[in-house]
Amino acid sequence: MKKKGYFADKKHRLIAQIVGFPLLALAAYLLFSSSIHSSADKFKLSKAVSDLQTLNNNIHTAYAATPDYAGLNIEALQAASLIPDDMLNKDGRLVNSYGGLIFIAPAIYFNVDNAAFSIIYNGLSKKACVSLLTTPFPLTGIIGVDVKPMEADIPETAEMKFDKAALPMTEELADTVCQAENDPTNAIIWMFY
What is the pLDDT of residue 1? Predict the structure, then answer.
């Protein structure tokens, strides 16, 4: 008696195996790869937030007894052991979890020199920029943020386009302000008092 059905003969069974197994393997690879990228993105975001909170808290602690933030810079923070070693690259430069440079400097606020300070995260892709702006997390003394579509150096005056009430941003607003699409050149400037 002969078997009935599609896979009854060896030819059809062989075709199913030749085509089916690679497709199944490809689907499994894509699912695995997607979960790895998702986990890596979540880790980078979590680390970026944690590092920003650490820097902010360390600066506020170090300057609590001073009238302003005069003399605030990365070298002063390093000398006081207030920058975690894992935030420094091999050249001793301060970097964020996305690989971009971080700048820290006092800023003019309400026409008062050194009344505030800025922490600038450079080298952010659009996706990273949007993620950081839409994720709710506490920051002591936050005044607001600005976003530049290029690497930002230490600003003389911190322009605050979005005050703290705008944080976390909506996905639509963050997508609009994080302008640099392909190159990781968005910079977020957080301003604190």
Answer: 52
Instruction: Find, among 115, 105, 124, the residue nearest to 49 by Cα.
Output: 124
pTM above 0.90, yes or no: no
| Residue 93: exposure state from Cβ atoms within 10 A (0-12, 13-18, ≥19) | exposed
Report yes or no: 137 and 145 within 8 Å, Cβ to Cβ. no
State the Cα–Cα distance between residues 73 and 50, nearest whole angstrom.
20
Reduced to 3 states, what is the DSSP secondary structure of residue 40?
helix
In terms of Cα–Cα distance, which of 184, 182, 165 is closest to 99?
Answer: 184
Domains of the chain, start order: 51-192 (3.30.1690.10)
Question: Is residue 115 packed enough to be buried (19+ CB in 10 Å), middle (13-18) or exposed (0-12)?
Answer: middle
